[in-house]
């Protein structure tokens, strides 16, 4: 018997597994407090934090599971968690 629970069983299955559905709290950012340390990008277990010169730090809510690690590791205290309305 093949166990498939939590496994990346086939190529590409991590992309189609939208972990954003697990979320009860969502990270938000106050861009003016961001000091560009990029801890949020490095520590996010879902690679759901992105940065661009134009838009600063952004979250990919399709994959962000609301774990709060980014807020916890934020050097500038720019990220905070907010309860989501579903
Ligand atoms: S809450 Fe967790 S999953 Fe979402 S962006 Fe932050 S570290 Fe990533
Ligand atoms: S961890 Fe905080 S201060 Fe560092 S880049 Fe991310 S939002 Fe900015």
Automatic annotation (TrEMBL):
<dbReference type="GO" id="GO:0016625">
    <property type="term" value="F:oxidoreductase activity, acting on the aldehyde or oxo group of donors, iron-sulfur protein as acceptor"/>
</dbReference>
<keyword id="KW-0813">Transport</keyword>
<protein>
    <submittedName>
        <fullName>Pyuvate ferredoxin oxidoreductase subunit delta</fullName>
    </submittedName>
</protein>
<keyword id="KW-0408">Iron</keyword>
<comment type="subunit">
    <text>Heterotetramer of one alpha, one beta, one delta and one gamma chain.</text>
</comment>
<keyword id="KW-0004">4Fe-4S</keyword>
<feature type="domain" description="4Fe-4S ferredoxin-type">
    <location>
        <begin position="55"/>
        <end position="84"/>
    </location>
</feature>
<keyword id="KW-0479">Metal-binding</keyword>
<dbReference type="InterPro" id="IPR011898">
    <property type="entry name" value="PorD_KorD"/>
</dbReference>
<dbReference type="GO" id="GO:0051539">
    <property type="term" value="F:4 iron, 4 sulfur cluster binding"/>
</dbReference>
<keyword id="KW-0249">Electron transport</keyword>
<dbReference type="InterPro" id="IPR017896">
    <property type="entry name" value="4Fe4S_Fe-S-bd"/>
</dbReference>
<dbReference type="Pfam" id="PF14697">
    <property type="entry name" value="Fer4_21"/>
</dbReference>
<keyword id="KW-0411">Iron-sulfur</keyword>
<keyword id="KW-0677">Repeat</keyword>
<dbReference type="GO" id="GO:0046872">
    <property type="term" value="F:metal ion binding"/>
</dbReference>
<feature type="domain" description="4Fe-4S ferredoxin-type">
    <location>
        <begin position="25"/>
        <end position="54"/>
    </location>
</feature>
């Amino acid at each position: 018997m093949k166990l498939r629970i939590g496994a990346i069983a086939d190529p590409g299955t991590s992309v189609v597994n939208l972990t954003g559905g697990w979320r009860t709290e969502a990270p938000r950012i106050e861009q003016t407090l961001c000091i560009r340390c990029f801890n949020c990008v490095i520590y996010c277990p879902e690679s759901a934090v992105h940065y661009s010169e134009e838009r600063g730090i952004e979250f990919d809510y399709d994959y962000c599971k609301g774990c709060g690690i980014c807020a916890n590791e934020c050097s500038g205290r720019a990220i905070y968690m907010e309860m989501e309305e579903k």
